[in-house]
Amino acid sequence: MTNFKSEGAQTGGDAAGPMPGSRSPEAVADRVLGLYRDLGDMEYHGESVSQLEHALQTAQIARDEGGKDEEVIAALLHDIGHIWPDDASVMTSVGVVQHDGLGAETLRSLGFSDAVAAIVAGHVEAKRYLVGSDSEYAAQLSEASVESLRLQGGPMSPEEADAFSRTSWFGEKVRLRLRDDQGKTPGLATAGLEEYRELLTNHLEGQGGGG
Ligand SMILES: [Fe+2]
C-alpha cells in the first residue's frame, strides 16, 4: 500500500495548510494534535503501523523510560516533517526527504523549544551514527529503515560520529532513535493523543508562546 499525503490521504479540512490565526499555546497544541488525529492513518513508510500509531508508541516508550518532557514531546512529534503540509518537501517511497530538518524547523516556528527541535533534527543523524558504530544495531534495522538510510547518507564515518557525539542533546537524539525503531508494533495499546495535550500546552507556555 502506498498512501502518502500527495496521493490523497485524508487532509482533514483545517488540519492541512499553513498555521492559521492565533499561535497561542492552546491553538498550537490543538493544531498539532488535530493534524495527527486527521492524518494519522497515513502509512508509516513501509512499516506495519500508521503514522499515528508510530508517534504514540514512540512517545509511550519515552514516557515509560522516564524521559524528560522534551524527550516525550520530541518522540511524539519526531516525524511531523513527514505529515506537516509543506510544498517544498520531496516525497519518496520512504517518506519526505529531510523530514528531520523540516520537522525541526516546523516545531521551532510553532514555538517548541530549541531542545525539542534539536532532538527531532538529530534523529536521522542518530541512526547514521548508530549504524556506523554498532553492528548489532545495523543488523536489526527494518527493511524500510535500511532503504531510507541509503537516501540519508549511509553510516557515519568515525570522524562524523565523533563530531556528532559532541553535539548538544546527543544522548537524547540517540535515545529518540532507539525509541523510534521500537515504535513499530502492530496493535500495541498506548495512551491516546489527547493525553499529550496538557504536556504540549505547558511546554509551549514555558517558551513564552502567546497569541
Ligand atoms: Fe519515526
Tag the structure with descriptive keywords.
single chain; 211 residues; mainly alpha; Hypothetical protein af1432; 12 helices; 2% strand; binds fe (ii) ion
Brief summary of the model shown:
By secondary structure, the chain is mainly alpha-helical.
Task: Reconstruct the topology from this structure.
Elements: H1 25-39, H2 51-64, H3 69-77, H4 80-83, E1 91-92, E2 95-96, H5 99-110, H6 114-121, H7 123-133, H8 135-139, H9 143-151, H10 158-164, H11 170-182, H12 197-206
Bound molecules: fe (ii) ion.
How would you sum up the global shape? globular
Distance N terminus to C terminus?
Answer: 40 Å
As a percent range, the share of helical residues equals 55-70%
What order do the SSEs take from the amino end to the carboxyl end, as H and E?
HHHHEEHHHHHHHH
Q: How many β-strands, per DSSP?
A: 2
CATH superfamily: Hypothetical protein af1432
pLDDT average, as an integer? 85
Spatial order of the strands in the main sheet?
A: 1-2
Residue runs with pLDDT of under 50 for 5 or more positions: 1-17
Q: Helical segment tally?
A: 12
Largest sheet: 2 strands, antiparallel
CATH class: Mainly Alpha
Describe, in plain words, how this protein is organized in 3D.
The chain has helices at residues 25-39, 51-64, 69-77, 80-83, 99-110, 114-121, 123-133, 135-139, 143-151, 158-164, 170-182, 197-206; strands spanning 91-92, 95-96. The chain is built from twelve helices and two strands. 55% of the residues lie in helices and 2% in strands. It has one domain (22-184, 191-206): Orthogonal Bundle (Hypothetical protein af1432), CATH 1.10.3210. It has 211 residues and is an all-alpha fold.
